[in-house]
Structure formats: C-alpha cells, structure tokens
Amino acid sequence: MPELPEVETVRRGLEPVLEGARLSRVRQNRPDLRFPFPDRFVERLDGATVLRLDRRAKYLLFPLSTGETWVTHLGMTGRFTLEGREVGAFEDEAPSGGKHEHVSLSAMKDGAVTRLGFADARRFGFMGLIPTDQVEAHPWFAGLGPEPLGNGFSAAHLAQAFKGRKQNVKVSLLDQRIVAGLGNIYVCEALYRAGVSPLIAAGRVSRPRLEVLTTQIREVLKDAIAAGGSTLRDFANAEGGQGYFQHSFDVYGREGEPCRNPACAGEVRRVVQGGRSTFWCPSCQAR
C-alpha cells in the first residue's frame, strides 16, 4: 500500500496541473470502489475548480470551488495518470484508459487541457466528497494523530502517547491515532536509523531515544519523498514513473543480508508484529 511518501509524491505530481484547474467531462465507469461513489459524484465534480491540493495522512484532498473537498485514498493499487492534450482535444468525454480505470476527466488550466485518469486494479481505494468545513470532523479524519512532518509531531508528543504503553514501539507507531501516515516500510527504516529495537515496549523508550526517533522519522520520510517514494509492486507517480527509495532500504526486505553499518557484523532479521513483517538488526537495535 502506498505510504506517506508515495502519496505526497502523487500530490506534488498532480499539483502543477490541477491547482486552479477547472474540471469537466467527468466520467465514472463503475458504481463503487472499496465503497460506493458519492451520490451524483459526476455532477458535483463537473465544472468545479480545484483550489489547492492537500494531503492528510495517506489521503489526498482537493478542496473545490463548490465548498466540497474531493478526497481520494489510493488503497493498494490506486494511481492517477496524466496525459497532456491541446485545448479542445476532448470534444465529448475524456476517453477511457483501460478496464481498470474507474474515473476520468479533463482539467483546464492556463488554456491547456490535461486528461486525468484514476485506475485501481484491486479496487481497495475509495473517493468521497465532503463539505470542506467538515473534513476534520469526518470519520475518516477524526482522531488522526499529528502529521510526522508537521509541528505537532515531537518527542514530547510521543512520550505522552507512549506513557505506560506495553505494546511494542513498532506497532504503536503504526497506530494512526498516535501519528498519521506512517506505514510499515518507513517505521522499520526509522527504527533502524534511531537504533531502537522494534521489540521494546513503547512506554519503555527513553526520552533521549524518542528525540532521536522523531528526528529519524522525519529524515527517512524526507529522503523517501526526495527519491519519489518506493516502488515495490504497483506504485507509480502521476507521470507513470517509479520511486527509487527502495534502493536505499537499510533493513526493509533484507532478511538474512548483512547489516549496512560498517561497524556491525550482524545481519538483518525478520519477525511478524501485528500481522506485518518487521525487519531490524538485533545488533544495532539491541533492547
């Protein structure tokens, strides 16, 4: 599933085309994805102008001139695609882009028209239209923790959230109520960089170590965004390109391989925690 860096990469790829663009010729090719599309989805999008492009956790948010926000979750295999066209290229509807494309439309900005498609082979993604002034109160967003790249995320926040918590720190960091948007890959990488064992109880991580951990969470996310995210199976950005951060993984997916720390003679191990594979170096991340 695309994690925060991949979703942010998609947002940045769409922003130059969609921010300030007027949407038209919207086509919905099926009644549902993971959930049904909103009532009158096509009519509510058609003619709207995208005011800006935001991201909250792993959601893309496009506030519209209509007072609603178009929300998209990519699920496992969802992806947006862009295809440039000259003005007036679409005389009727934007053309469909294959059997797995479920939404298509055209976006006009600065006299140019771009075709936008959304495909999702496994249909675990979903879309919604929410009144913009009610987004934060919506069940999808209510209760989410702070953004790991925002000012609300700090060692003090983690210390409070982890206080007395017996659950291991790895699974705790995946709790979206504690911090929003973190996923399995980047939690493994951040814990390795911080030298924190994924097996230790969250409530037992010291304050100095939490300072290091919060810094490394931010750094690994920034590094991944700079590399365009990670492509393991299906992720591609809006231009169809792949991310490259997978080539920089220190531990994720490297079970049995030597630790990348030159001073360490250990190897990467794997354990299942909360139904997810955790990769770590027991020597560098001793409890």
Secondary structure blueprint with pairings:
Blueprint: H1 4-18, E1 22-28, H2 41-45, E2 54-56, E3 59-63, E4 68-73, E5 79-85, E6 101-109, E7 112-119, E8 126-131, H3 155-162, H4 169-173, H5 184-194, H6 207-226, E9 269-273, E10 276-280
Antiparallel strand pairs: 1-6, 2-3, 3-4, 4-8, 5-7, 6-7, 9-10
The low-pLDDT segments are: 85-95, 232-244
Sheet of most strands: 4 strands, antiparallel
Write the CATH fold name of the largest domain.
N-terminal domain of MutM-like DNA repair proteins
Span of the ends, CA to CA: 29 Å
* Number of distinct beta strands: 10
Shape: elongated
Q: What is the helix tally? A: 6
The CATH H-level superfamily of the largest domain is MutM-like, N-terminal
The helical percent reads 10-25%
What Rg do the Cα atoms give?
Answer: 21 Å
Strand order of the largest sheet: 1-6-7-5
Portion of residues in beta strands equals 15-25%
What CATH first level of the largest domain would be assigned? Alpha Beta
- Quickly count the domains: 2
CATH architecture of the largest domain: Alpha-Beta Barrel
> Structural class of the secondary structure composition?
alpha+beta
The string of secondary-structure elements, in order, is HEHEEEEEEEHHHHEE
> What is the average of the pLDDT values?
89
